[in-house]
Amino acid sequence: MQTRNGFSILALAAAAALGLAAGLLVNSFHHASAAPAPASAAQAQPPADGKLRIIVFGAHPDDAEYGAGGVAMKWARLGHHVKLVSTTNGDIGHWGMAGGPLAQRRTKEVLEVGRRLGVTTEVLDIHDGEIMPTLENRRIITRLIRQWNADVVVTHRPNDYHPDHRYTSILVQDSAYMVTVPFFCPDVPHLRRNPVFLYTSDRFQRPTPFRADIAVAIDDVIEPTLDALLVMESQIHEGGANGNPNLYPSDPAARAKRQKQVRENLANRYARAADQYRATLAKFYGEEQAKKIRYAQAFEICEYGSQPSQEEIRRLFPFFGDQK
Ligand SMILES: [Zn+2]
Fold first, then answer.
1. How far apart are CA 62 and CA 180, in angstroms?
2. Sheet of strand 214-217: strand arrangement
3. pLDDT tens digit string along 281-323?
4. What letter does residue 221 receive in the DSSP assignment?
5. CA–CA separation, 13 vs 208, rounded Å?
6. What's residue 67's pLDDT?
7. CA–centroid distance, residue 303 to ligand 1 (Å)
8. How many A from CA of 86 to the centre of ligand 1?
9. How far away, in angstroms, is 87 Cα from ligand 1 center?
10. pTM score above 0.70
11. Alpha carbon of 117 to ligand 1 centroid (Å)
12. So where are the chain's domains?
């Protein structure tokens, strides 16, 4: 069903016909420059136009956006096809509201983030806090990677504070390699080549700390990226599951103060990444350029996907050398 907001809601019957698990409701949005929004997520394949195809899985409607938002915008600006998927609907991710209304609110937020970044967004209708590394879910993830015909797949590392982050990572890892096996989920054509699988950065130390194999400057897109991310008011301004009503009061002056503060916090997050992963930035941009980079995002290469050469990394991340 098409609404004027660009929401594409799949009926269950359509989902079943498309080979998606019954009961999976998908909200997907296709940015304005794309062809008319297709009737289904399965048909929402990027054209075979020689451009890169990237799919990012986050556990909640904000994780893929934080982890890859800036780089996603850089890819999108070059005409590459990026899809951000939330594997749960985020329906317990707030201190004061829950259930369907929160899932709808958060879906609307990330659809708008996606529109601003120039990417496609999809939210799977699995309850927040309840995703499990099941065979059924492995099939869902495998199909999504195949349907996107992905060159690059990005997700959380498997050791992370939130069970949904851990199990989303496990599900994506379990789909690496299996996406190439013809008789696993034979209803969706298998990939001829295992994509490159990457992890987003995190602070966790055990069993191993995050290793920045690839780091990308996002200075050129930092302002529009922050503008896009700040659309997620339920999470950023109101504080999500651990927030409280005092964080974002109705008083306009207090609101303005909070908006300024959360924008700075978010910018600092990417500034810290630039400092922390400057050695990796230097590898790709050269020492002199790397010193000038203020904001960055970094990725670790997963062992279960294709192992890219340095040349292949530069093909998949066509950004190095564009720092002025
Ligand atoms: Zn999360």
1. 29
2. 8-9, 26-29, 120-124, 81-86, 53-58, 152-155, 196-200, 296-301, 214-217
3. 999 999 999 999 999 999 999 999 999 999 999 999 999 975 4
4. G
5. 44
6. 98
7. 23
8. 9
9. 10
10. yes
11. 19
12. 8-32+49-215+301-316
